[in-house]
Amino acid sequence: MKILVANRGEIARRVFRTARRLGHETVAVYADPDASAPFVDDATVAVNIGPAELSLSYLAIDRILDAAVSSQATAVHPGYGFLSENAVFARAVVEAGLVWIGPNADAIEQMGSKIRARGLAAESGVPIIPGYDQTQTEADLAEAAARIGFPVLVKAAAGGGGKGIRIVAAASEFAAALAEATAEAQRSFGDGAMIVERYIQRPRHVEVQVVGDAHGHVIHLGTRECSVQRRYQKLLEEAPAPNLPDVTRHGLQTSAVTLAAAIGYDSAGTVEFIVDDTSGEYFFLEMNTRLQVEHPVTEAVTGLDLVELQIRSATGQPLPFEQDEIVLSGHAFEARVNAEDPGSSFAPQIGTISHLTVPDDIRWDSGVVVGSHVSSHYDSMVAKLVVSATDRPTALARLALALDELVIGGLTTNTGFHRWLVDQPPLVEGRITTRFLDETDLPDPPPLDQAAATAAAVWVGRRRTTASSRPWASLPDFSLTPHRPQRTVLLAHSTGAVFEIAARSGLPHPVASVADRSVAVNVAGVTHTFRVLDRTEGWAPAPDVGHGAADAVVSPFPAVVTETPVVPGDHVSGGDVVVVIEAMKMLHALRAAGSGIVAEVRVAPGDQTETHQVLITFEQDHR
Ligand code: ADP
Ligand code: ADP
Ligand code: MG
Fold first, then answer.
1. Average pLDDT of the segment spanning 184-188
2. Which residue has the higher pLDDT, 120 or 493?
3. What's the CATH code, domain 131-198?
4. Cβ < 6 Å from ligand 1: which residues?
């Protein structure tokens, strides 16, 4: 076959990998901002389908079908997100004479509305959350909420991706919450219909992977725990779900298969449940009629390739095994690596990846490489880090190690948050609920200068341990003057600030990782990545100002200066924008790392800069 993947980034690469392994040709479709993305190179053929706007590219059914015709594709895989749960698309693909690598359109449709799905679950004897999904007047919904008892959840019937959901604690808040959720649902799904449900108090999100074929055969591949969530979206997943009473686990698995069989399910899919951690009771949430982001943890514990199973089912082949041949072994975790800042409400971040060190004994499903620009056009997930081991504690320890070793430069990601998370007792014990992040304050991230001091200490420490095996000449900060303290020159990727710092021991931020020439300090969800500069790298040594103040701001990459808002003599504080540069059609504000006085402004608007070129220097503010 020649398989077109109607998606982008890591999921397109994931599907291509299996397609190639099975000897199929591949077609990538891409929007303009993705022209140089790695997934485009991975495919046998690539077709541009339009501009950044989703409705004109990744969501444009006609353009994708045109691309299938022009590239002579014979099959379409939708990935997840985008058109993956769109029955109209599934039908259009089949009507165009192509193989649809996904569930039949009727099954997608039946589960597309949560109202209909609740009804089907109830008919199949699968427990549903006590709730109301009938007439949509505000009065009826409010009355239902009062009957169910607060707190309740209002939830978009057409929802997905955590959108259109609000918790309502009391009757007085109901009208406002309903209005917000309805507006969000209308905006995101073009459908404002709402469900009111009892809010489960100690909720765990546990789901069951199912897979079916076109011959009426459905089996399950065990459970996944996805309770670590922010804004009802998953951040960390594991398989199998830990600490489930046997009766609960068995019930979940049986319910999932029953429901999938009832709708003639014939591909890979996921039935999601809420488990009440206090009682072990479980309730049906929704069914996702597609491959799921977190499918790799199931692959890790079953040894199966879910995309391969999807391709088999799509081509009419029966499932190659029976339920009792499925053996789960070991334990797996997946951390979603998102370009977001957990320190400021998980706000999405943009940036260009300047450095990437990935530990080599993990599964790394990623859409990016060094040089990739993460823009605001698409969702913030850039990669998934997957580890597995024979048991849960070992898998968790490997995850911690992998997060310590992972270095992503040039982009703020949530890897430091994940590293903090893996030490939290509820996660360690396998008893985390979806409320955990709401109930827990993240520790404060260190100021940039403290992070730089930590990075310097880590760098010098590593130099000592590797000194015997590495030539002195390769060490950028080696000094033969014994009376002068070791000083390290560091460039902060996030701001372009340069620190010349004497390493101090005993600093409180041990979560740091070292790669070739960079050091990353991860604390509380914030990763500060520093490049260790050579004294010869175009950066002029500044006066000895000691630990704490940055001496200069340098250009983190080649760019053009667009603004220099400061003049010599200005007092600046940490975080003040001191120069703005433009690169790859993006403006980047470079900020002072600490307080000081501007000594020199060495560039003017319009100047071209080189990597590491000094733009602004500071002297210490002695006020
Ligand atoms: P899960 O498969 O874990 O349930 P979600 O339901 O949150 O994940 O959504 C599936 C995935 O599809 C998202 O994590 C995201 O990567 C992708 N996705 C969803 N909506 C969009 C969108 N509008 N644009 C790009 N990607 C999207
Ligand atoms: P989506 O389609 O956006 O994924 P879901 O129905 O799967 O919507 O709900 C998303 C998340 O919201 C769940 O994983 C769970 O954390 C939470 N949630 C949903 N319904 C309830 C409920 N009734 N009580 C408590 N938490 C809920
Ligand atoms: Mg869901």
1. 91
2. 120
3. 3.30.1490.20
4. 80-82, 160-161, 233-234, 288, 292-294, 378-379, 381
